[in-house]
Write a structure and sequence with these properties.
alpha+beta, Pdz3 Domain, 5 domains, six-stranded antiparallel β-sheet, 23 strands
């Protein structure tokens, strides 16, 4: 208990210090001195042995948790990891992994890379790396997979309940910003831009040039699921389609030096070719800067679902001993003046959650051609596709990894040699529903959570006994509605299951090829681009 009290007090002191620094140097010095002496006394006199590094780390995390989720303290190792991520190249095994509760689960294996060559598959759980059993390893287990290129490491993994052994030879892994592009029928070029690392604009430019050489007369730029990355690359990608000297984004802050306009600096690659940009709820940050600027200049038709709304700008600040703090310094705004940020972390609800503005409070802005656009966080597409926005139950299934786990089981019970032979039937979906029941999957709707909260409050009003019967009936009604929703959302959920399965059988390239034939958002983009009258009317009504 004493330890927790110390951490809370320490976090409070540090938070107060951060805010006070701008206006009262004496106050920050005073609070730092109090904290230093408190930290010293705890370490010297506490009844049990304490770990100074752990105490300090907890104090720092306690201070930051009341800010936004993007202001983070980075250890020296995390600083290096961020540098590698932005470079687009690293040494590893060529797989996306989930590290949780002293386990490493392979979420996706990339074709031709070490993990794939070693026979590993998505869903495999690593049990032992080298001579280290993960269940007994206290540090970040992911670090065990790193090492010099060419070095080999034995792996023990669990697959479908059985232990297996293999060996992986580490090598240089190139992370492509543009993992896929292809010329579709009717001379429509399709480009997937999956992240904004240092190669993003160069790879996008190369893809555009090659597609035009193949005969592309219009383009689809797919930013769905792109979480963002480097601001400079977002500006450069926008610059491929917008003239030199155009404002792409503005950053605004309470600190004057962080207020800045970012303009294009080069001549465009092609400022005329018809362009559609695809976004969804997982398109964030740099993706929103690109789609927002192209929308504000009426340069592209934006298609899909409202983007994530990550409009907070971070900048790394050097600390001592190679550590850094990645701190939010300002907000992003589109050329028309719209704030990209969706959630307000400085005005929270009674449960401590960041609030989202009501639609009635959105502000109106205009594009270059006078079209009305609105803020409210993220970028709202010009053409909204209902299937691009996920329902609450689907979001819950993804968060719980229910679709991923079902795909793992399905993969080992079905075999498909060719992409064109793949199919997922209504009977397969019924198997998925059975899988959910057997796995104990549960999720709570907002209505359900509000009802539970009201029932708890009723106890304070001495009404719980009187309303218990009605509460029970309402709960049963909600449960029945949730079961019905699984049937109603079969089409939406099935598509996500299919995407996960196609990746298992035919890797990511197979998924992109499959989506070109079966994805409603891509179909809508092609339809718009193939109708010049509609395309022009959307951008210049």
């Amino acid at each position: 208990m004493k330890k927790k009290i110390f951490l809370t007090l320490a976090a409070g002191l540090l938070l107060f210090t951060t805010v006070s620094f701008k206006s009262d140097f004496f106050e920050i010095a005073k609070q730092l001195e109090i904290f230093t002496t408190l930290f010293k006394e705890i370490n010297m006199n506490y009844v049990d042995e304490v770990n100074p590094a752990e105490l300090m780390d907890n104090a720092i995390q306690g201070m930051l948790q009341d800010l936004d989720p993007y202001t983070n303290y980075w250890t020296e190792q995390e600083v290096e990891e961020a540098r590698i991520t932005n470079s687009g190249q690293y040494t590893g095994i060529g797989a996306a992994v989930l590290t949780k509760d002293k386990t490493i689960t392979l979420m996706e294996v990339y074709a031709g890379y070490p993990a794939d060559q070693a026979g590993l598959k998505a869903g495999d759980e690593l049990v032992k790396i080298g001579d280290v059993t993960l269940a007994n390893f206290e540090d970040d287990a992911g670090d065990l997979l790193k090492g010099a290129p060419g070095t080999e490491i034995p792996i023990t993994y669990k697959r479908q309940g059985k232990l297996e052994n293999t060996a992986i030879k580490r090598e240089e892994i190139e992370v492509k910003a543009v993992p896929f592009y292809r010329l579709m029928p009717d001379n429509v070029g399709y480009i997937v831009l999956s992240q904004f690392n240092r190669k993003a604009s160069a790879e996008t430019e190369a893809a555009v040039k090659e597609l035009k050489e193949q005969g592309a007369t219009s383009l689809v730029l797919d930013l769905r699921g792109n979480p963002g990355g480097l601001l400079t690359e977002a500006i450069n990608v926008s610059n491929l389609f917008l003239p030199k000297g155009k404002l792409i984004t503005t950053t605004k802050s309470a600190i004057k030096k962080y207020n800045k306009d970012y303009l294009t600096t080069n001549e465009p690659l092609d400022a005329q070719i018809p362009l559609a940009v695809l976004i969804n709820g997982r398109s964030a940050s740099a993706s929103e800067i690109v789609s927002g600027s192209l929308q504000d200049y009426d340069r592209a038709v934006i298609i899909g679902a409202r983007s994530f709304g990550k409009g907070l700008v971070q900048r790394p600040k050097e600390l001592t001993y190679g550590t850094q703090i990645k701190i939010t310094i300002s907000r992003y705004y589109t050329p028309s003046g719209r704030c990209i940020q969706a959630l307000d972390y400085w005005h929270r609800d009674e449960d401590g959650n960041a609030v989202r503005r009501d639609v009635a409070d959105y502000n109106e802005f205009t594009t270059a051609n006078g079209r009305k656009v609105y803020d409210g966080g993220g970028i709202l597409p010009d053409v909204q596709v209902s299937s691009a926005k996920l329902s609450a139950i689907t979001e819950a299934l993804l968060k719980d990894f229910a679709i991923f786990d079902f795909a793992t089981t399905y993969y080992y019970n079905h075999n498909f040699e060719e992409l064109q032979d793949f199919k997922f039937s209504n009977g397969d979906y019924r198997d998925f529903e059975t899988f959910l029941k057997n796995s104990g999957f549960e999720y709570k709707t907002e209505t359900e959570m509000a009802l539970e909260k009201a029932y708890i409050v009723a106890e304070n009003d001495n009404l719980q006994e009187q309303i218990s019967g009605a509460y029970s009936e309402l709960s049963k009604t909600i449960d029945a509605a949730k079961e019905k929703e699984l049937d109603e959302k079969e089409n939406e959920i099935s598509k996500l299951i299919i995407d996960e399965l196609v990746k298992r059988y035919f890797y990511r390239e197979g998924l992109y090829n499959y989506q070109l034939e079966h994805n409603e958002v891509i179909d809508e983009a092609v339809t718009v681009l193939q109708d010049p009258t509609r395309y022009t009317k959307i951008l210049n009504p």
